[in-house]
Amino acid sequence: MMKKVLCLLLLVISLIGCEKEATLTFEAIDSKESSDHCDDESCAEIALNYVLAKGDEKVQETINEAIISAILPYLNYSEDEGIETIDAAKRSFFKSFEENKEEFESEASWYAFIFGDVSYQTDQLISIRLDVEMYVGGAHGYQSTKYLNFDPKTGNIMEPKDLFEDLDGFIALAEGQFRNKYKIPEVANINSAGFDFENDQFHLPETIGFTKEHIVMTYKPYEIAPYTEGPQSLTIDYATVEEYLKKR
Q1: Which residues form the Deacetylase PdaC domain (predicted)?
Q2: pTM
Q3: What string of DSSP letters covers 88-111?
Q4: Interatomic CA distance for residues 236 and 164, integer angstroms
Q5: Which CATH number does the domain 25-150 belong to among 3.30.70.360, 3.30.565.40, 3.30.70.970, 3.30.470.20?
Q6: What is the pLDDT of residues 205-235, one digit of tens each?
Q7: What are the C-alpha distances in Å from 13 to residues 5, 23, 57, 80, 108?
Q8: Based on CB atoms within 10 Å of each CB, which residue in 80, 103, 170, 176 is the most buried?
Q9: pLDDT-derived band of residue 6, with 50, 70 and 90 as boundaries?
Q10: What's the rounded Cα separation, in Å, for the pair 193 and 226?
């Protein structure tokens, strides 16, 4: 009898432990809106399709706040720094469009298309990719890709030092791969091919992401090259970087 009670107790403890370690899931949020009085000649449009976490309340709250905070700057063109929600940012975007249209008598349409999805997920790392395409006047639009890397246990953003066991070794490897892709000799200045690395020193991009097959390094527009040069990116397969990784 005692053995049965003990087995039952162990089973209950095991089930409770499984509940606490339940894998986070992600829910797609999809919305499309246009400015008031929208016509074929001048209009403002917002199309959002991103994901929010569901699971442990504290972890999901931390992750979702980071995702929303990453989206807000693309929509808020006012001087109001107190905008903290997607809906408030949308209103700011449309208001700024109407003010610009009236002040400059502009007939140019604005748009902001943002797509976000889970590019990689394990019990050690969650990587969220955000693709942005937008136009808010000027000579050209704006396109960029941003990755957010999270610790699934805490929901906290993971910086490169959290991801790589040997960060300096990875940076050296990445520079070699970058030089190889853009045909820059090892002895040549990193900027000799037309790039604009600060102090003529290679550095990692602000955004590093993970997929099932490889690590993705994406430099945002103007980070190391003029906008006209297009996006600068580098992918490195896991077999090449395995020894440098701390989390995957």
Answers
A1: 39-142
A2: 0.86
A3: HHHHHHHHHHHHHHHHHT----EE
A4: 14
A5: 3.30.565.40
A6: 999 999 999 999 999 888 999 888 878 899 9
A7: 12, 18, 21, 50, 62
A8: 170
A9: very low
A10: 13
User: Where do the DSSP E strands lie in 93-231?
Assistant: 110-121, 126-135, 142-150, 207-210, 214-219
pLDDT tens sequence across 165-186: 999 999 999 999 999 999 999 9
Instruction: At 130, list the tokens.
Output: 């955000």
Structure tokens given for 194: 């037309």
Do residues 227 and 143 make contact, with C-beta atoms less than 8 angstroms apart? Answer: no
Q: pLDDT (tens digit, 9 = 90+) per residue, 188-197?
A: 999 999 999 9
Residues 26, 170: Cα–Cα separation, whole Å: 30
Helix (H) or strand (E) holding 167: helix 167-181
> What DSSP element (H or E) covers 158?
none
- Residue whose entry in the numeric block shows the structure tokens 């449009």: 45
Give the C-alpha separation, 242 to 247, whole Å.
10
- CATH number of the domain at 160-244, please? 3.90.640.20
